[in-house]
Amino acid sequence: MRIVIAEDDALLREGLALLLRAEGLDVVATADAPGTFLTAIDEHRPDVAIVDVRMPPTHTDEGIVAAVEARKRQPGLAVLVLSAYVEQAFATDLLARGSAGLGYLLKERVGRVDEFLTALHRVADGGTAVDPEVIGQLLARTRPDSPVSRLSARERDVLALMAEGLGNTAIAEKLFVTDGAVHKHIRSIFAKLDLAPDDRADRRVTAVLHYLDDQRK
C-alpha cells in the first residue's frame, strides 16, 4: 500500500509516517500544505492519501478541498481524512461526493493503533470508515421530524455501525445478534427511510447520508 500524508503539524505528520512504516506500509511522501500534497499525488500516484481537514493558509477546509481535487486527478484514490473535532458539514460534504474508499476519523483515533489501521485498510479496500464519535454525536442530535427519527433504538445502532463501514457479519458480532437479525433490521431501516430496492444508489450509503445531511438543515 502506497501512502501520501498531508498534515501541517510536523510532529503528527512524522509520527504517522513512522507508525505506518513500522507496519510495513510504504509512505511515499509527506506534505505540509495543499499544494505540495497535490504535487505528491501527481508524482507518486499513491493508493491512499491521509489528509488533515484544516491546513494552511486559512486552516478551514483546505484539506477537504485538496482531497476532492486529488480524487479528480486520480479517480479511485482512497482518502482518509483526519480532524481534531466533529465537523458535520465536512463529513457530509466528503461522503456526499461518493463514499467508496473514503474515511473520516478524529485524530485521537490515531493513538488507538489497531482501530486506526483497521480503518485505513478498510478505506484502501474501497470501503467507508466514519469515526464512531462522529456517528454518535450526529445520531444524538437527530431532529424529531427527520426520517431517522422513525428508527428504533436498535435500528439506530445498526445504522451507526453501517456508517463505520462494517458489513452484516461484523455488525452481528458487535451487537451479539444473528446475521439474520441484522439483515431484518437493515431492511426495516431502508423501508422507514423510503429507500426502494431498485434505487440505483447504494442504499447503505444513502441511509447514512440521510442523518448526516439532516444535521446541515
TrEMBL record:
Residues 144-215 form the HTH luxR-type domain. It comes from the Bacteria. Pfam families: GerE, Response_reg. GO terms for biological process: phosphorelay signal transduction system; regulation of DNA-templated transcription. One of its GO terms (molecular function) is DNA binding. The keyword DNA-binding applies. The modification 4-aspartylphosphate is found at D52. Gene3D superfamilies: 3.40.50.2300. This is DNA-binding response regulator, NarL/FixJ family, contains REC and HTH domains. It comes from Actinoplanes derwentensis.
